[in-house]
Design goal:
Helix content is 42%, strand content 15%. By secondary structure, the protein is an alpha/beta fold. It has a single domain, classed as Protein tyrosine phosphatase superfamily (Protein-Tyrosine Phosphatase, Chain A). It has a 5-stranded mixed beta sheet with strand order 1-2-5-3-4.
Length: 158
């Protein structure tokens, strides 16, 4: 589990089910980006937002609003974990979205998460492009720019 910004953590399924670690980091809220990982500590008072995302899900304005509301409600008070199964695709994409909602620029947010996370990140192009299309902070990042960045960053061609 990596602290991306103050009390905002990025992790995977193992982190999400490690009650001792969550307690140590004062995590009292979790964004679960998976369809299959349980909300392990809901009965113990940890607040959850379950997004039920697949790897190639698109982030809609409604999902972005849910995330923003949850983060605004919980993050100022205590630690918040964003996780998916492996901590590689969905959770990093949602962390990028959270940083965009906090005034980061799109590509800066990506590089910031990548730098702070001890593992690698590989959010899907579809999810990144759908986040870019939200035009957060008045920054318009078109699909072609995301595709070019994705190709250069991951040396993937599609």
């Amino acid at each position: 589990m990596d602290e991306i910004v103050d009390r905002l953590f990025l992790g995977d399924e193992d982190d999400a089910k490690n009650g001792a670690l969550l307690k140590k980091k004062n995590v009292r809220a979790v964004i679960n980006c998976t369809t299959r990982v349980e909300n392990y500590f809901e009965q113990q008072g940890i607040a959850y937002l379950r997004l039920m995302l697949e790897e190639c899900s698109h982030i809609t304005p409604e999902i972005a609003a849910q995330i923003h509301e949850f983060v605004q409600e919980h993050h100022p008070k205590h630690g918040l974990l964003v996780h998916c199964a492996g901590g590689v695709q969905r959770a990093p994409a949602i962390m990028i979205l959270i940083l965009l909602q906090d005034r980061f620029k799109f590509f800066d947010a990506f590089e910031f998460v990548e730098k702070k996370h001890t593992g690698y990140i590989l959010p899907t192009y579809e999810m990144l492009a759908s986040i870019a299309r939200l035009d957060l902070n008045g920054e318009h990042v078109d699909d072609a720019a995301v595709k070019q960045y994705y190709r250069e960053r991951f040396r993937l061609f599609f």
